[in-house]
Amino acid sequence: MAFVAIFMMPFYYGSRARSVPEYLRLRFDEKTRTFNAASFAVMTILSSGISMFAMAKLFNLVLGWDMNASIWLSAVVVLGYIVLGGLTSAIYNEVLQFFLIVAGFSPLVWLGLRQVGGWSGMVARLPAGYTEVWANLGSAQANPMGVEWFGMVMGLGFVLSFGYWCTDFLVVQRAMAANSMNAAQRTPLIGAIPKMLFPFIVILPGLIALALTLHPAAGTQPLLPVLPDGSYDYNMAIPALLGRYYPEGLLGLGLTALLASFMSGMAGNVTAFNTVWTYDLYQGHINKHATDAHYLGMARFTTVWGVALSVATAYVAMRFNNIMDMLQLVFSFVNAPLLATFLLGMFWRRTTGHGAFWGLLGGTAAAALHYEVTGVAASASLLPKLAMIHTYPSDMAQNFWGAIWAWSACFALTWAISLATAPRAPKELEGLVYGLTPMPSNAHEVWYRRPVVLAVGVLAATIALNILFW
Fold it and tell me: What pTM did the predictor assign?
């Protein structure tokens, strides 16, 4: 988030592009923009379906409603406030939902830790390595995820994390809606502060749930339900904790917090899909000269269509016992190769449109090929395999390495093809490439409004947390 604020936001915001794919059109060409817009549209629908499934699962668990009816109810609720309020309503709702999430989950952590005997008691109930970040990454066999240090640093720390925070339009869209360059740069930095603290109210409850499943408290049953294949249903960690610890009044607050988080994710993805389809695909290729009123009507229709498609992908999410596995799989196909395209495009003026397009296509194909020739131990695949040349110990390990292959393929292809094709004139790249774009100066701002100062503080806090949980 510090990188996108300091180094990439001047290009995003300075180009006045309405979307990330539109920046690709300005920097490269129409075919690169179209490919990214199409792949991103698919990703937002899949991500929205994941949030819809989680929201419906909550209705099904707590209220006993039929799963199919719960999915459709979730769709109607989110559709209502997006259609009535658009992007503005989505942004304001996300801010309010953030405070609901904090208020709803914070007591859960305290109550759970109290029953397991505090932090030390939780650590004693968990298998070794579950509360450490780096200590057990010397080899894939030394940690439960089955990932060594290179897979973690390159796959998650660089490719997937940078790919999400630096190129995902759902994230960048919020900063692009700011009223000044300074505000746009500070948006991800301010967001990074609570983001660093979120593991304490999101990941920690999951650890508590696992501890109470492997070693239940006296007189209680294991917390997490078991799926037909014998694995634990990790999607039920927080709902199960809410049901065990919260009395009726507090349970309402906790459920509201869960609903807020699911609605926020779904609404954000649908509004991003709306923008990409309307401006980058429909206006760019189908109807280029319509009135603003026509595009507004198309955007509203697209919202309805996007929610309907999300209903279909919610059923795909049912096949995962941990929806984060599905989410990272989707990111490895879309965000991982896109990161390579952006890094080369923004910081190497020699990058060409042909290189960017074929690099993106090759990176996505590499992710698909990796998925089709590798598998996960004791886990079913969504699609039939072409071959089986390697088996990973976990879905997440497969996702991390899939992202590495996608990024590497895109980077190599883009670099090679760019060297073999003619670049654009430097004059055409002003405002789009590092070295040809005046970087914003914030010397006139008070120190706490300067993005560089905020970035240094965020990075220092990040390093401190990593050392604390080494």
Answer: 0.85
**Cα–Cα distances in Å, from 268 out to 38, 67, 417, 460?**
17, 23, 35, 29
Backbone angles phi, psi at 110, to 5 degrees: -65, -45
The C-alpha atoms of residue 105 and residue 93 are separated, in whole angstroms, by: 18
Cβ neighbours of residue 443 closer than 8 Å, sequence gap 6 or more = none
- For residues 255-291, one letter each, b for 16 or more C-beta atoms within 10 angstroms of the residue's C-beta and e for the rest, the string is bebbbbbbbbbbbbbbbbbbbbbbbbbbbbeeeeeee
For 119-175, the pLDDT digits (tens) are 999 999 998 778 887 888 888 787 778 888 899 999 989 999 998 888 876 667 667
**Amino acid at residue number 402:** G
Domain count, the chain: 1
Give me the CATH number covering residue 312: 1.20.1730.10
Residue of 324, 128, 111 whose CA lies nearest to 214 = 128
Dihedral, CA atoms, 179, 184, 186, 190, nearest 10 degrees? 90
Q: Which DSSP letter does residue 165 get?
A: H
What is the Cα–Cα distance from 445 to 283, expressed in whole angstroms?
39
Q: Are 353 and 29 in contact (CB under 8 A)?
A: yes
Contact criterion met (CB below 8 Å) for 258 and 15: no
pLDDT: which is higher, 21 or 92: 21
Helix 20-27 vs helix 323-347: angle between axes, to the nearest 10 degrees? 30
Domain membership of residue 411 as a residue range: 2-468
Q: Quick check: 322 and 206 in contact, CB under 8 A?
A: no
Beta bridge partners of 232: 226
Tally the residues of the chain: 470
Residue identified by tokens 């905020």 is 454
